[in-house]
Amino acid sequence: MMGLPHTLQRNFPLRVHIATLFTLLILLTGLGIGWFVYQQSQETALTQAQADFERTAREMTVSLERLYRPTGALVNLLARQPLMHAHDLGERLENLDTLREMLNANPQSLSLYVGWDDGSFFQLRTLDDDRLRKALAAPAKATYLMQSIDVGNGTLPVDRRYIYYDANLTMLRDDERPDYQYDPRQRPWYKQAVAQDGLVRTDPFATFTTGELGLAFAHRNRDASAVAAATLTLTRLSSALAAGKPTVSAQLLLFDDQRRVLAYPEQEKLLMADASKDTGWRPALLEDLHVPLLQVLLPAGKPVMADRRSRIDASGHEWLTAIVPVGSASGSSTWLLLAAPTAELYADARTVRNKTLLATVAVVLLSLPLVWMLSAHIAGQLRKLTHEAQRIHRFEFEGELSTESRVKEVAELTDAIGKLKRTIRRFLDISLSLSAETRFEQLLDRVLAEMLGAAGAEGGAIYLLDDTGSKLTPAAMRWQNEAVGVDRLGDIPLSDTTEPLVQAVKDRRTEILLLTSPRPASLQFIDAHFGSARVQMIAPPLTNRAGELVGVLCLFLPNEREAVSPERIAFIEALSGTAAIAIESQRLLQGQKALLNCFITLIAGAIDAKSPYTGGHCQRVPELTKALAEAAHEASDGPFKDYRLSEEDREVLHIACWLHDCGKVTTPEYVVDKATKLETLYDRIHEIRTRFEVLKRDAEIAYWQGVAGGGDTITLAAERDALLQTLNDEFAFVAECNTGGEYLAPDKLQRLRQIAQRQWQRTLDDNLGLSWAEKRRKQVGEVTLPVWESLLADKPEHILPRNPGEIMAEDNRWGFKLRTPEHKFNRGELHNLSISRGTLTDEERYIINDHIVQTIIMLDSLPLPKHLLRVPEIAGGHHERMDGNGYPKRLSRDEMSVEARMMAIADIFEALTAIDRPYKVGKTLSEALTIMARMQQEQHIDPELFALFLHSGVYLTYAKRYLLPEQIDAVNIADYLPAGA
């Protein structure tokens, strides 16, 4: 460790050096051991592979000898049997038991057979597996198959048959097989045996019956009239190679010097289709296997050379190979190829290497705790301090630090970090408490209380800069943990530079003064607490983020205490900055809320001032709604015992109440103010009266025309007077209908229609003097004057069409469920006079009701903060009904908020009792409550809230403030509530 650079010692702890050294030593040792073991394992794997190759070659040589030698001896023995001279099938069957014994003695042989020079053939083959039985259509219990071709003496047809036997040579089935076309004299084994004396072995071939790769041993008799032979398959050699593969991808194959493959683990590749062969198959060549390794190792056209061990690259892999001769016969050499990828041979070596590495890592991991413990007593205190610093970084301040250490510097550092921790924790706690306060006056008191605690002062005060920026105004004061009123404190002009607080403001720095008696005028109030004793004053200025002055804080401490430390002063200054920001934020928020409230009341006042028909409705509904909400808040039992209002809830309710009719700014005044049925921008009853006047003048004229024509004056006068009286009566009736004061019965409606049929003559063009828009809407061509018109008319120009854009879609995003009239206005005279109740048509009532739709749309479009998101729902729900038949969303009681249901009651009660509406007289308490009682029974208003409205006395408190004395009659609230409510 002494040889390490100084920077490394300075930047890394001791325990890291120790742990790193031990780790590197163990890792290097483990890696060295692992590499040595890996190299040795590779050599061992190569040696083992070479030994495996040699062992496989020896075993294959022995297997060939065991396969060939017994079969050759068996054929030699068969060539000396009486079967060779048998002349027909009967004689040949007498030798069947001998053939069975010979096959049983040599399981390697697939079959024994004899071919004669006349083309006859006799064969006995074993059926040792189900696959072979299925291929030869043999019975399930068949063990042997005798295949016979008996040419005979030439006078009879050739006899061809299959006879199936069980293990005891009991015949199971005898099948004639005329399709068994086989001539032994054309087979290689027959030709080779006839051509030379002694035992012969054929080249590999595909067997005629089963299509397997095999070879045959054959031997002729002395006169060459018959040839005995045996067939053996090379399947067992392929199985032996498959079992001897050293690795999964290893290649083992047996081939001859003609490159024919005799044995291969993938036996399905041993034969290739060849139409030129009578069996349709030929032995596969090396090229037919399509193994890239063979193309590199045994290229075509080059002789095969023995190679005990070599390495070659093929197909992107390194291979260990060996080519070994395994014996020869009849001049044909047989070779064994063995090849294995070195990657698989080294698998065990890699496993050992990996285990060594894992063991090394395990040793490192197991030794680390020991190394760590070894260095812990040296760097223990430093670790604790580092951990504590990290906890401070994560703002975790729980617990206290221990200062026990024999190292002075460590003890001092521990004490410093502990003080830092307590200071930051205190600062954050105070900042959090200040930011959590939402009321300005309480915030000032909280700021002062926290500052007194931080400074250890007995009292203090906060002065804020006024709006003019010319003086400091006292805002809060505390003494000995109690809030004190600021009535005794006066304003301090900034022009008075003799004041210590003004000096702190001017210099923008903390003033620390020792106050003696007599004190400055602005600070004489502290004498009541300290008398004439000297007092320390700390006065940090309060500035905002931009460095602008917000106010000043003054703290007072007895002089007997020791001087305030610079660290404490710095803490007070930092805390005063946070306090100043909190104060400024609250002042800004309060100002914004005040501005918003002014806008709200301005809008509500404008709506009330817009039409005398609304009076002070928008100003009184909030008072009534909030009173009912407070009654629910204070309820200790009943359905509202759990209902509580927070300050945010009160703000939401306040805004919703004041804006509940803000949509009325879009409602035409003449619709709101329509006091008669014919009123639009003016009352058209005057037009009707003029027409009656015309008819009366016409009656007078008709009278004088009759007199001039020599008529009876008495009769004419009587007719005139009767008509004039009728016209007077009819106009009086029309004028009465126009007021809409009573229900218009069907008989009155019929009389209106009769009056409307009267005709009067118009001699002037009614298109003269009209605006361009009015002329376009009428779209009436020129009329020949004079014309006769109905006294009360419903003309096409009286109907104003509705703009398609004014029709609310059924799937609108606000959920409105409206029945929109077809026309925007229908100003037909007879149509309006025929209104059965009130003065409004369906179209005008839709416009009146549209104010609540517009209220919701307008409020919903505002970027309301999260806590005000319920304002549109509350403000827009006061025309809904408890039974779901209200307006505009048809909400049921459960779909409405409690506040919306409260406002519905307030809206109705205010409308019924209002005394400032020109179209009606305000109802008394009993009348209004009777109507509302009926409305609760009809599920128009909430029964529970109506009961609270009565029981809490909200209705009476409101009445005493806003109703006339004569309206406040005696009521018994039990009369308006269901029994038990």
UniProtKB/TrEMBL annotation:
InterPro entries: GAF, GAF-like_dom_sf, HD/PDEase_dom, HD_domain, HD_GYP_dom, Sensor-like_sf. GO terms for molecular function: phosphoric diester hydrolase activity. SMART domains: GAF, HDc. CDD domains: HDc. It comes from the Bacteria. Keywords: Membrane, Transmembrane, Transmembrane helix. The chain crosses the membrane at residues 12-38, 357-375. Gene3D superfamilies: 3.30.450.40, 6.10.340.10, Hypothetical protein af1432, PAS domain. PROSITE patterns: HD_GYP (PS51832). Residues 756-965 form the HD-GYP domain. PANTHER family: CYCLIC DI-GMP PHOSPHODIESTERASE PA4108, CYCLIC DI-GMP PHOSPHODIESTERASE PA4108-RELATED. This is HD domain-containing protein. It comes from Andreprevotia lacus DSM 23236.
